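Now for a sample.
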Amino acid sequence: MSALFLGLVAAVCWGLHDIAIRYLSRTVPLMGALLVVLLTGLAFQGGVILVKGEWLMPQGAALWYALAAGFTFLAASLGLYFAFERGPVRLVSPIIGAFPILSLVYAALGGSVITPDQIATVLVVIGAVGLVAILSDSAQGDVPPRGPTIAYSLLSAFGYASTFKLGQLAAETGGEWQSTFATRLVALLLLCGILWAIRPDIRVGRKAVVPLVAMGLLDGIALLSVISAASLPQPEFAAVAASIFGLFTILLARVLLNEQMRIAQWAGCIVAFLGIGYLTL
């Protein structure tokens, strides 16, 4: 099993997650949705750890890395939810999908050797995903001001890149499940503090509970997949592969919602997958 494969698993899970949140955001409070998603993921990961008979929390330095990852994970999640609520997709997806650039920067700072052809391939993959995203959003009409939308998107991109790096550092010595559990627990506690302070409406309604629980499981599997790459060669490439979650979201929308794909979009998909394949060589 390679880091790229784990990243692709994360991309599929987050693609399904985003399809659901884009649909539910019209009728479900985003803060309430995020609360259910984080609770579900925490219960899922905690249950597995208890069944395995291991400690719930990592120890030593791994604990501090995991705690820091909790802060960045909540920032990434809030940025993602509010950026996609504002839209449009053609603006949000390319910015958030560019987070592997930061992942490679972190890897280089950590002593990993990043070759020019690998950097070029990552840029090509990001560009292909951006092309598909731009061509996918044909909706007309007024959209919210771009400044806040760009800020939310950048916050999400920075948050995800930082979460993956910190989570992988924690997993190297503290275990993948324990590190992911601690990360999600911190994010949940911080979110509860925010909700207590601002007291928004978080009633999601009964009909939304099942899809939100499913989203929590998908989100938990995705985050675990990327963090689990810590013990594999070039773990930063898990984040690279995970960055095509936006592409999977668009493809799933075509399949599930019976929307049409342009030739240029198919070309972008093929280029992105070829780039991921090249990185496995």
Summary: The radius of gyration is 18 Å. The chain has a mean pLDDT of 82. Residues 88 and 141 are 11 Å apart (CA to CA).
